[in-house]
Amino acid sequence: MRSYKVKFINPVVLLLLCLLMLHGCSPGSDQEAEKPAAIEEKRPTMHSVEMLQMKFYPIELKVKKGDKIVFVNHDIVTHDIREESKKAWNSSPMSEGQTWILEATETVNYYCSIHPVMKGKIVVE
Amino acid sequence: MKHTMITRNIGPVAITLSVLITFPGFSQENAKLSDPEVASVAVVANQIDISYAEIAKKKSKDPEVLKFAETMINDHTAVIEKVAALTKKLGVTPKDNDVSKKLLADAKKTKEMLGSKSGDAFNKAYVDNEVTYHKAVIDAVDGLLIPETDNEELKALLQNVVAALKAHLGHAEMLQKNMHK
Questions:
Q1: Is a pLDDT exceeding 70 seen at residue A38?
Q2: Is the Cβ of B85 closer than 8 Å to some Cβ of chain A?
Q3: Which of chain A's residues have a Cβ under 8 Å away from the Cβ of B78?
């Protein structure tokens, strides 16, 4: 008999749960959830590249056009960032703890002109 | 056992600096240095590479060699400042010793050799010496000191220093390769 009661109660509980879930998935709440995401898509994303132990981390970074990249120097020694193929742009020297921001416009290879073995790449997708 | 003894007898900064005991001409038996003596060795070793770079700045007209020399001066000065800050924190005052004296004596010979050369011969001699010198220091720091170090602050400093030395070596080898083209 006990098992019969359990079987009888379960559908009621399930119904209540369904009602609660439907309420939670109402059109009004959907719109509110989508709003921030729609705004987020238009904003440029901020990425970071860390200079640590004479290397760029990550060595290759994939971004979207217009995104911004913050380069942070964690090393004891001074570094800079220079576009490799045409030497089209470069940062000023960055000592320990200093940062520099680049806006991504195209795929580029770059390096540290002070320590030319340090190399990295930004891929604009 | 020898490594254990070194770790116990000298402080973290001393261990950092004792890397230089493996320079050519020094055996492990020379490793019994006090903290102030090891601090002296470390400072001297960095100063030696700065002194080579200063000679290069006076004698070379090659833009790439001059740029490398400038980097050596700036980077080794930065390392000396870090070491000095750590020795100050630990209350260690550098003291002359046989190892630092031997390093200086060897450096004197190298500087005389560099002083006797000019033009392309000087550039080649300077860059060749930079490759040899950095290889010796990297081997000592990487192979002996980092594995033996328990102090996290010291280990981090060693890793930063050896990374810088490896970048210097890579840079020097690039110059060396271009000279042989």
A1: no
A2: no
A3: 76-78
Residue tagged 């921001």 (tokens): A101
Contact of A77 with B74, CB cutoff 8 Å: yes
Q: Could you give the ipTM of this predicted complex?
A: 0.79
CA closest to B81 among chain A residues: A76
Percent pLDDT > 90 in chain A is: 65
Q: Is A2 left (phi over 0), alpha (psi -120 to 50) or beta?
A: alpha
Nearest-by-Cβ selection for A77 from B159, B164, B170: B164
Pick the residue with more confidence: A15 or A67?
A67
**The pLDDT of residue B34:** 63
Q: Which residues, given as ranges, of chain B have pLDDT below 50?
A: 1-22, 25-30
The alpha-carbon gap from B170 to the nearest alpha carbon of chain A, in Å, equals 6
Judge: A117–B164 Cβ closer than 8 Å, yes or no.
no
Å between B117 CA and nearest CA of chain A: 26
The domain segmentation of chain A, as residue ranges, is 42-124
Q: Does B74 touch chain A (CB under 8 A)?
A: yes
A13 burial (CB, 10 Å; 0-12 / 13-18 / 19+) is exposed
Taking the whole predicted model, whether its pTM rises above 0.95 is answered as no
Cα separation, B34 vs B97, in Å, equals: 9
Cα A10 from Cα A17, distance rounded (Å): 11
Q: Which CATH superfamily groups domain A42-124?
A: Cupredoxins -  blue copper proteins (2.60.40.420)
Pairing of strands A108-111, A82-83: antiparallel
